[in-house]
Write a structure and sequence with these properties.
Layout lengths: L1 H56 L2 H14 L3 H37 L6 H7 L2 H17 L3 H57 L10 H36 L2 H11 L2 H21 L6 H28 L1 H9 L6 H8 L13 H7 L3 H54 L5 H24 L4 H22 L5 H12 L5 H32 L4
Helix pairs in contact: 1-3, 1-5, 1-6, 1-7, 1-9, 1-17, 2-3, 2-5, 2-7, 2-9, 3-4, 3-5, 3-7, 5-6, 7-14, 8-12, 9-10, 9-13, 10-12, 10-15, 11-12, 11-16, 12-14, 13-14, 15-16, 16-18, 17-18
């Protein structure tokens, strides 16, 4: 499992990172070619189909991942075949309804929602994204659940690659916004076709019994019962950012809203790490049979929280320390308050040590999706009434504080429930060591950024490696990692040829420091024995 997790997680990381890179390049080129006004219209007309995709999913993507992983682990190919057929069919049906709804109401939406009547034709065109996007979501979900991470990554990469090639070309051919939208749509169509081909080929290889043990109607009921709570939680999550901007619009200037949204964009950097982690954990938990493998479940949960924290907590604190330099390099000095918002927003990822990013996947994997919905509902119930009050008195920082606090409260509820239901526990000693090592490593880095008056790029290139080396040196001495962790991580990274050499060097360094710590401890005990001999 460790080797499979390393390979699968790294495949997803490469796919997501490559896709993100191509998408960023595409955005920069399109924005440059179209100009502010046309680029603004381009972004606006894509918003409604994006919302429609999430509304039309009905939790089918999560259901496909969960049951693909579970039924594959049970070697029940007959049911798995039915589940794949049912999930894809339901998504196509709901996407057809959403497509039809936008087509017939495009004039109304363009006039009343977008307040741009001339965008109706563009809206009708972009509605074609709905079936293509849902196919991409559902096929990727099926492949991830079936542990075919490389194929899922290919779908993501193809979508962004087609877009980065076609959109600029079509704009240069004189099609303007229409060309940019066509490139975007064709990227999703190409990846949807590839995803459908890969999933159908996989389904054909499944051994099917003469009489299927599950009917499509039964599969649909099962998948909807599982997926609807996840679907509702996802819709709540979708509403958080627009609601934050709506609250801020009443209490702060447009400049501060721009600074805040610039800082939020950096969460994508941490999500490059979080995305493969969460998408590997989901099928792992889905495979687990808690009636026979409860100890295995507890072990995987404990290590998942620890290793997620080992990666994400120092990255979050690193962004806090170097927030000013990062903002200036990426956005320029005009975003004068964005660095303080970035530092505060990173508090969200400091919650990783209390199960953030892991607890939800535990519940979803075990089919306990109502608890996932409750976690999100608690977060929303705390955030919605409190955010306007905090915005009034503390502006943007107040809203960020409420976001972090409400997420913490919802996550603590989920952690307590998971402890009570499944007996999972946190490895407190290791987690405390991770936070302590990150804080200690941040101190000299923070002092250096305040003392030296170097160019931001030089500061980042100097302080960043210093912080990383200090952290890697501190974690063995503070009990964050031991020899068992080094062995586990060696197994996880051992199957990833691309990063194996670097990982081997880092883990060898950690192993040497662990032995040094043990020798120092033994030496100290020996000295104590000599100083206070037994009578």
């Amino acid at each position: 499992m460790a080797t499979q997790s390393g390979r699968g997680g790294f495949a997803l990381f490469l796919g997501n990172a490559s896709s993100t890179f191509f998408n960023v390049v595409t955005v920069l080129i399109i924005a440059r070619l179209l100009g502010p006004a046309s680029y603004g219209l381009y972004a606006i007309v894509l918003a409604i189909p994006g919302i429609a995709v999430n509304v039309a999913d009905l939790g089918m993507s999560s259901s496909l991942t969960r049951y693909s992983a579970r039924l594959k682990a049970q070697a029940d190919d007959s049911k798995l075949s039915v589940v794949i057929e049912t999930g894809l069919t339901l998504n196509l049906v709901t996407s057809a309804f959403a497509l039809f709804a936008i087509l017939i109401s495009s004039n109304t939406l363009a006039l009343n929602i977008l307040t741009r009547p001339d965008a109706a034709n563009y809206l009708r065109l972009t509605s074609m994204l709905i079936p293509a996007s849902l196919l991409v979501l559902s096929t990727c979900a099926t492949l991830v659940g079936s542990w075919k991470m490389k194929q899922a990554s290919l779908i993501m990469i193809l979508q962004s690659l087609v877009k980065v090639i076609l959109s600029p070309l079509l704009i240069l051919f004189g099609l303007g916004i229409l060309g940019a939208l066509l490139g975007h749509i064709l990227g999703y169509v190409a990846s949807a076709v590839l995803g459908l081909v890969l999933v159908l080929r996989y389904r054909q290889r499944l051994s099917t019994q003469p009489e299927r043990t599950m009917k499509h109607k039964e599969a649909a009921r099962m998948m909807l019962n599982y997926g609807l709570p996840v679907y509702l939680a996802t819709l709540m999550t979708m509403l958080l950012l627009p609601y934050q901007n709506l609250v801020l619009a009443h209490f702060v200037s447009d400049v501060e809203i721009g600074n805040y949204n610039a800082s939020v964009n950096f969460s994508a950097a941490i999500n490059l790490i979080a995305y493969p982690l969460t998408n590997v954990l989901f099928p792992i938990f889905s495979k687990t049979d808690i009636t026979r493998e409860i100890d295995h479940l507890r072990h995987v949960f404990r290590l998942s929280v620890k290793y997620a924290s080992l990666l994400i907590v120092p990255v979050a604190i690193g962004f806090m320390v170097l927030s000013k330099e990062v903002i200036v390099i990426i956005y320029g000095s005009s975003y004068s308050t964005a660095h303080s918002y970035l530092s505060a927003y990173m508090g969200l990822f400091l919650l990783t040590g209390v199960g953030y990013l892991v607890v939800g996947n535990l519940f979803n994997g075990l089919g306990d999706t109502k608890e996932t919905l409750k976690m999100m509902a608690i977060t929303i119930l705390v955030f919605v009434p409190t955010a306007p009050i905090m915005a009034k008195y503390f502006q943007v920082l107040g809203v960020i504080a409420v976001l972090v606090s409400s997420t913490l409260i919802g996550n603590v509820y989920g952690l307590k429930k998971s402890m009570k239901k499944y007996g999972v526990r946190l490895e407190l000693k290791g987690l405390m060591g991770i936070y302590a090592a990150s804080a200690i490593s941040a101190a000299p880095a923070l002092v250096l950024t305040q003392v030296v008056n170097w160019h931001p790029v030089i500061k980042l290139a100097t302080v960043g490696p210093l912080y990383l080396v200090t952290y890697l040196t501190a974690i063995p001495f503070l009990g964050a990692v031991d020899q068992t962790d080094v062995s586990n991580l060696s197994q996880i990274m051992g199957g990833v040829d691309l990063v194996k050499p670097l990982a081997k060097q880092i883990l060898s360094y950690e192993a040497k420091l662990i032995r040094m710590r043990k020798n120092l401890s033994l030496s100290a005990r020996g000295n104590n024995v000599q100083e206070f001999p037994k009578s």
